Amino acid sequence: MNDGPVHPDGAKNAEVALREQLARSDAAAAVILPTLRHLITADDTSVPSDEILARVRGMLADIVESLLVAGGDTGSVDRALAESLAGTLAESSCLLSHLHAVALEWQLAERLRLRLALDPVVSPLLQTLIASPERNVRDQALAYLKMQARWCQAQGHMKLPLQELNEVVLHDVLDALSSCGADVAERAKIVIHQSHQDGANRQALASRVMQGLGGEDQSALSLADAGVSLFLSALALKSGRPRDTVIFSTQEGQIARLALFLRSARLGHSEIEEQLLALHADAVLPVEFERLDVERAAALLPSSHSPGLGSE
What we know:
The protein has helices spanning 8-29, 32-41, 51-70, 79-90, 93-116, 124-130, 135-156, 167-176, 182-198, 202-213, 223-239, 243-248, 255-264, 269-279, 294-300. It is mainly α. Helix 6 (124-130) packs across helix 7 (135-156) and helix 10 (202-213) packs across helix 11. The longest helix is centred in the middle third of the chain and has 24 residues, at 93-116. It is globular.
């Protein structure tokens, strides 16, 4: 799409406005993990709990149980050991940030299911790929469909399979296992590594689905076409940013960051507005944003990556 000639003054004004918005959103994001960690580990049950907090706690407890079972504790889980491991895992900013992102993704999928009738499992794009005459494209789409359905089922119970943890998060989790003792840790690590070798997670499968679309196809960058899960994976892939960071950018107060992700993924002004309005009915782009070219948008993004926004 031709976005018109770039006027230096307009582009400069857009950058100033974007930097100000990114600074404000970074400041807000910086307090998320410490607050989340405090609430998860707090013994004071009078602290109000919302959906996100409950979901993060549920996934953390599920990971702890899965780790202990993988380590050979097939009977009743030792409560003291489980609490110790949960406390150790809660100290991992990488894991906590990832669980927060997963909870936000599920919340977003549910919100858009109700608001826009977007199916969290089967999107129009996925249906098209499943009907593809090319066997490889069809097989990858079907594999992703099954994985997405299992993920939704697990989220319905506030659980997260160990197989879903990416390599960076998994490294922190495996390090935390040392607190369980050498025998338990060693057995658990063998089981976990085997599960990651036997099957791909959603993110890996999404990348394969993207390959089936071709490099120039931008249909996955449409929420209405791709659905939440594939949209997030496609935006991460095409903008070159971690998927968790992309998820955080969909939240209120992060519109400038999301707009930059979309622009760096080579979407035009009207397409960017369409995606923002799908997420936030009152979304407004910064003045002169349409004058910001793809290269400048990408250049602004490194400074916008905050530790509070998650990483992979």
